[in-house]
Amino acid sequence: MLRVVTELVSSGEQVVAIVNPASRHFDRISELGAHVMGVRVISESLLRRAGIDAKDGQPSTARALVLLDTDDVHNVHTALTARDMDPGLRIIVQMVNPRLGKQLHSLLGDCVVISGPSLAAPAFVADALEDDELTWLEIGDRRLVAGQAELIREPHLTVLADTTSSATPELLPMSSADPSGDIVLGTGIRTVWRTRDVRRAGWLMAMSDVLDRRVRRIAAVMAFLVIIGTVLTHYIGKMDWLRALYLVAGAVTSAGIEDDKFSEAAPWAKVAGVVVQLTGIVLMALLTAVIVDSLIGARLSRVIGGVRGRPRNHVVVCGLGTVGARVLEILSERGVAVVGVEHDEDAPGVQTAHRLRIPVVIGDSSNEETLRSAGVQRAQSVLALTDGDITNLESAMVVRDLNPDARITMRMFDHDLAQRVERRLGLGHSRSVSMLVAPAIAAAAANRRSQVTVPAGRRVLLLTEVAVEPSSVAVGLRLGELDEAGGLRVLAHKHGADPWDWTPAYDGLLQGGDRIAVAGTRSGLARLLLATRAPNA
Questions:
Q1: Exposed, middle or buried: residue 373 (CB in 10 Å: 0-12, 13-18, 19+)?
Q2: Secondary structure letter of residue 21 according to DSSP
Q3: Where exactly are the transmembrane stretches of this chain (predicted)?
Q4: Which helix (H) or strand (E) holds 352?
Q5: Contacts of 520 (CB under 8 A, 6+ apart)
Q6: Nearest-CA neighbor of 335 among 199, 149, 195, 200?
Q7: What is the pLDDT of residues 148-165, one digit of tens each?
Q8: How many C-beta atoms lie closer than 10 Å to residue 27's C-beta?
Q9: In sequence order, what are the residues at sequence separation of 6 or more whose Cβ sits closer than 8 angstroms to the Cβ of residue 52?
Q10: For residue 4, how many other CB atoms are within 10 A of its CB?
Q11: pLDDT tens, residue by residue, 105-141
Q12: CB 431 within 8 A of CB 409
């Protein structure tokens, strides 16, 4: 919240911040100039006091509502309450669960759903891979990537530029029905960065961890008793080897002794048999207890998903929360060898890792032995993405001691601490998820265009969303009339609360309130904005 309020206040917006009084950022938000309301539970009356209350056909004094609670259920509840109070209110919701976020439009109508992990994860991946050839963006409710055609997975959505035909790049080529070019827009990345795969431990290694030294010692004692007892029974009891082995094994394993000749044995033999059987009962109880203890202590989900062998040139991701889970997905798409480290077996990224068959080391990422188990001493990059600045800092320091050549990126909220750490300790880069996400949230709240720049040789293209204002010149135009070779291309169209259409009919007519996703040059985009703006705006 602190970053979002900072962005809004710095852009001249009047902000009412509803903050839990226990928040460590309460005083800092007040110092920014926002009007702060300190409450623990958001109610309808509180929203009304904050300016959300449409009466007699008049809109609320509040222009937008931004919901940043980490609890998706609370966000949805508050959003539904606000929508009932003002059907025309602009609502921006940050969602942790992407599936629930996709369903919000059916509940709230026109709203903006922001996914922090989806926006921040590509930046961490780019740091880990030292990859500046790709541009990730969120546009038209889709996560897209722009860059070299050989890096983008087919089918490509559109060709953005051709930088190979001449010294001057050709932007948005439309010279043929199937234009060619080397800069394209797509939905995913090809597997081109693959290193040697990192394999999970599997069942064999899992069972070797469960059958530890204690189990082996007890099993050795039981085997010794069976051998000695079989030999003595064979020679003293005058029995054949197989029957002697059967009797002794049955006694030691507590399976019982059922043999007619044994009932006729001498008293001392019967006493010896009972002693052996009692000893076997104790040993079987110990063996069962040790195996159960090993299963509970080791947790099969941990040992099965651990690292097999000695991986090299891989990426280690420490902290598998929502951001770490998204990072794993992107790295897996790229074909990158990756190992996860997480102390909580129930973290979202652990389940993602199991689904993608990525090895996970369960343990404290600031612990040297845990990091050694993940192979950081041979890793190419390490991402410290836990929720704690100090934990990430400690992890980075341990990694630097184990592998001075590793590329380290830390997730840190405290911007001042991050700058001092980078300057004085030289532990690599640091990024803040809130700083990566806040500009997008602030732009959505202020209804400003959020645009992404894609380089094409010495020129650039801008990708953004544009709203068609009522009574603007664009109302009534066909979508195809907006396209201009080398200047502008319509990528997708959204009418009202309908979902985005990424295969729009170019003879369809534009209406007031529609939104279009476009790619264009600065001049082409400027002409579009002039056409979609109301005359008096």
A1: middle
A2: T
A3: 218-237, 271-292
A4: helix 348-356
A5: 172, 461, 462, 487, 488, 489, 528
A6: 195
A7: 888 888 888 899 988 876
A8: 10
A9: 60, 62, 65, 82, 85, 86, 89
A10: 24
A11: 777 777 888 887 877 888 888 888 876 678 888 888 8
A12: yes
Encoded tokens for 119: 């926006």
Q: What is the pLDDT of residue 199?
A: 55
Tell me the pLDDT tens digit for each residue of 81-93. Answer: 988 888 888 888 8
Answering whether pTM is above 0.85, one says: no
**Running DSSP on this structure, what letter comes out for residue 93?**
E
State which H helix or E strand residue 315 sits in.
strand 315-318
> What are the residues whose beta carbons fall under 8 Å from the beta carbon of 421, sequence distance 6 or more?
393, 410, 412, 427, 430
Residue 179 is predicted with a pLDDT of 61
Cis peptide before 179 (omega within 30 of 0): no
Q: Give the tokens for residue 138.
A: 């969120």
Mean pLDDT of 179-194: 73
- Beta-sheet strands, E only, within 23-141: 35-38, 64-67, 90-94, 112-114, 135-139
Are 81 and 47 contacting, i.e. CB atoms less than 8 angstroms apart? yes
Say how far apart CA 102 and CA 30 lie, in whole Å: 33
Burial of 115 (0-12, 13-18, 19+ CB in 10 A): buried
In the structure encoding, which two tokens stand for residue 394, read together? 């400690």
What's the DSSP call for residue 115? -
Nearest 5°: CA angle at 11, between 9 and 16? 30
The conformational region for residue 256 under phi > 0 = left, psi -120 to 50 = alpha, else beta, is: left
Distance, in Å, from the CA atom of 511 to the CA atom of 523, rounded to the nearest integer, reads 23
Could you give the CA distance from residue 338 to residue 382 in angstroms, rounded to a whole number?
A: 10
| CA 5 to chain CA mean position, Å | 25
Higher pLDDT, 261 or 109: 109
Amino acid, res. 78:
T
How many angstroms separate the CA atoms of 246 and 480, rounded?
Answer: 87
Dist. CA 10–CA 523, nearest whole Å: 28
Could you identify the residue written with the tokens 């041979």? 378
CB 517 within 8 A of CB 492: yes
165 Cβ neighbours under 8 A, 6+ residues apart: none
Residue 245 tokens read as 């082995």
Q: Given pLDDT bands bounded at 50, 70 and 90, which one contains residue 316?
A: very high
